[in-house]
Amino acid sequence: MSSPLSPSASVDDHPLLRFGVISDPQYADADPWLEHQRYYRNSLSKLDEAIGLLNGEDLSFVVTLGDLIDRDWQSFDPVLGVYEKLRHDSVLLPGNHDFSVAPEHLSSVHARLGMPSPFHHFSRGGIRFVVIDGSEESLFSTKPGDPRHERAKMRLAALEQAGAINAMRWNGGIGQDQFDWLETVLAQAAADGEKVVVMGHYPLCPENEHNMWNGERLMALFARSGNVIAYLCGHHHVGNLGRDGSTWYVNFKGMVDTEHDNTFAVVEIHRDRIEIVGHGREESRSLFLAPASP
User: Fold this and answer.
1) DSSP 293
2) How many CB atoms lie within 10 A of CB 72?
3) Which of 19, 78, 215, 274 is the most exposed place for a label (fewest CB within 10 A)?
4) Cut 0.90: pTM above it
């Protein structure tokens, strides 16, 4: 049966590449937050199950879309220990909870996750993958007095003044230098004939209280670029799906939620579509791509 999001038939059954997606394990050695169904300790066994299944797949890499931990620097040790079992390349990026550590550790979070830099890009199977840092300007990733912290305070105040739905202290945004870098990467990918997948922690679309503070600016950039086929994120644990122009916006569900049910996915990129093969609570979807310009 065909997906309501897609044509009734596909002309392409061979993926360009496949990769795994995990979002928001949010591990901590802490009792559950029952009001929001977050079982922090249980994420280790869920991760172990997910990695075991993903190890049996032919994948280019596995990306985790932020919030490996819920709090405390020492939480990184057990959760990263589970990732040592992963046989594929692991792409990690931080979410807001990954900065819920003592102030002296804030500047070390990206290194603890093994990132080459807070925002970077790489190519696989003719696709350009771009990792952005949506926590760059936030109230939690930097100390008071840091210029990024002060810009975050001003940005949040302006959003609150405007009554923005996403004027929340747990969100963040990117700075001008990172935006300029992203614009350059997308332009170079277009010049090289590459489609692009951007990956970050915070949603951009549809409108939601969890969305990145300056997400509309990124969406406008993606629309101008014309080659961003998907933006993948976590943060909003119930998940979401949107489309703007030629870009799909896929918000994956949070692993920490529910006592036993897992959630993760395998993503297949085809020339004409993106297939999401959901496991557990994650939905399977067929997302067809806009035809290439003549």
Assistant:
1) P
2) 15
3) 78
4) yes
Helical residues (DSSP H) of 195-238, grouped into ranges: 215-225
Give bridge partners of residue 268 from the DSSP assignment. Answer: 18, 275
Q: Max Cα separation, the chain?
A: 56
* Tokens matching residue 242: 């949107």
Residue 9's SS3 state is: coil
Domains of the chain, start order: 17-288 (3.60.21.10)
Contact of 26 with 67, CB cutoff 8 Å: yes
Here the tokens at position 219 are: 């969406």
- The residues near 137 (Cβ < 8 Å, ≥ 6 apart) are 148, 149, 151, 152, 155, 172, 173, 174, 175, 213
Per-residue pLDDT tens digits for 177-222: 999 999 999 999 999 999 999 999 999 999 999 999 999 999 999 9
Report how far residue 138's alpha carbon sits from residue 118's, in angstroms, rounded to the nearest whole number: 14
Strand partners, 233: 251
Element housing 79 (H / E): helix 76-83
Residue 197 in tokens:
């997948």
Q: How far is CA 84 from CA 48, 55, 78, 90, 173, in A?
A: 10, 12, 10, 9, 30
User: How buried is 180 (Cβ within 10 angstroms: 0-12 exposed, 13-18 middle, 19+ buried)?
Assistant: exposed
The rounded average pLDDT for each run of 10 residues, N- to C-terminus, in the chain (294 residues) is 42 86 98 96 98 98 98 98 98 98 97 98 97 98 95 97 97 97 98 97 97 97 97 98 97 98 98 97 96 58
Angstrom distance (rounded) from CA 230 to CA 227:
9
DSSP-derived letter for residue 157 is: H
The encoded tokens of residue 283 equal 């939905």
- Evaluate whether 204 touches 220 at the Cβ level (below 8 Å): no
